[in-house]
Amino acid sequence: PFPDGTVLVKLAWKHVQSPEFEPASIPGPATTVQVMVKDSKKYAATGGWGFGRFINGKSADEAQHQTCFACHQARVRNHDFVFTRFAP
Ligand code: HEC
């Protein structure tokens, strides 16, 4: 499990076709910044993680954050609700 104080950030971009080599995709415009903050007391109801999302630099509304935990809980509850693995 990740310790309290852990902050994970996911940066997302659109993918667009490479102008130099059509079969390849490259990052296009930035879309969202998603954040998970570990605080096992404050966020006890959602596995110890607080979820936040920023679109165009603005925080999305609270209700939206409920959907975050549902998916992470359904898929990776046995990995502290985190999808990403450390490189072997
Ligand atoms: C429908 C499923 C789904 C929903 C809903 C979802 N996520 Fe995720 N999330 C993923 C998947 C799959 C990954 C790993 C692949 C990737 O990074 O795209 C991930 C990765 C992350 C990561 C990087 C750490 C990790 O677990 O690998 C953060 C941070 C994150 N999500 C935050 C959020 C936030 C905040 C929300 C709500 C606004 C959210 N997620 C909603 C599926 C979801």
Structural overview:
This protein has 1 helix and 4 strands, in the order E-E-E-E-H. The protein is of the alpha+beta class and 88 residues long. The protein has one domain. It has a 4-stranded antiparallel beta sheet, covered by helices on one side. The longest helix has 15 residues. The two termini are 17 Å apart. Bound molecules: heme C (HEC). Heme C binds next to strand 1, strand 2, strand 3 and helix 1.
Any key phrases for this structure?
single chain, 88 residues, alpha+beta, 1 helix, binds heme C
Quick overview of this protein structure:
The chain has about 90 residues and is of the alpha+beta class. The protein is built from 1 helix and 4 strands. Strands 1-2-3-4 form a 4-stranded antiparallel sheet, with helices on one face.
